[in-house]
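User: I'm designing a mutation panel for NAD(P)-dependent oxidoreductase and want to avoid disrupting the core. Could you give me a predicted structure to guide residue selection? Please restate the sequence first so the numbering is unambiguous.

Assistant: Good idea. Sequence first, for numbering, then the predicted structure tokens:
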Amino acid sequence: MTVPVLVTGGDGVLGRPIVAALRAAGREVASASRASREHPLDIRREAEVRALVERLRPGVVVHLAALLPGASDDLDEVNVEGTRRVADAAASVGARLVFASSAAVYASVRESPAREDEAVAPTTPYGRSKVRAEEVLDAFGDAVTALSLRIFNVSGPELPGSLPQRLVRSTEAEPVRLRGLDDFVRDYVTPADVARAVVAAVDAAVAPGHTRVNVGSGAATSNRALVDLVARIARVHVVDETGPRDRVWADTARARAVLGVVPTPIQDWSADAFLG
């Protein structure tokens, strides 16, 4: 018998491929969101969270619902307290929690890949909200088995605001302004990469308590390298506005050991990953 999986934020850009991948893997999935007709859910409302989890009694809760980078308010209420509400409800029914955290928790000026056991140093309100959400999960101790997936820079045709997509759509009249060519480095992943990691996390052999795992390819891709990659499939128009060093990419050792899957480096993406 399959173990039901509840996905919060299941109607989002990451939620849709994650729900599809879980179902393709043979899982029974309930997708919940504020827009859902079947399973409406506002994680600001504790009673609503508790009632849904108690009704469905999932074996696993995949918690994606959150405010995204750039949100001006409610980050603590949604990203931190919302995670506490979901984790508390999951613990009450003995469900595993798979939480969508972010590479934004890491310091962004570095000379080596980011490791899960290093001290965090977020530089944005969004990153700080994800750190506090992870600390919420730490506080549960062994009362919940939780995996925080620290997702790196997601890109694809579904995400027009991502830098690779902006480069694909750039024009001479509207070039992309880059924060330097060699000192801005990121680690790019696709929604399908994230979905594979979530599917693996649902069954990963981990001890009770909180485990943090990077979801990144390990490829440190500079803006210069990214422009060269995109230029193979589209005309690219950029303006180089040199900025401070800003470099973050993933150490993948724990992902290989815990999940058994690592995203494909952007250098090996197909044209469809850029163009759709």
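For picking mutation sites, this is relevant: The first strand starts at residue 5 and ends at 8. The first helix runs from residue 15 to 24.
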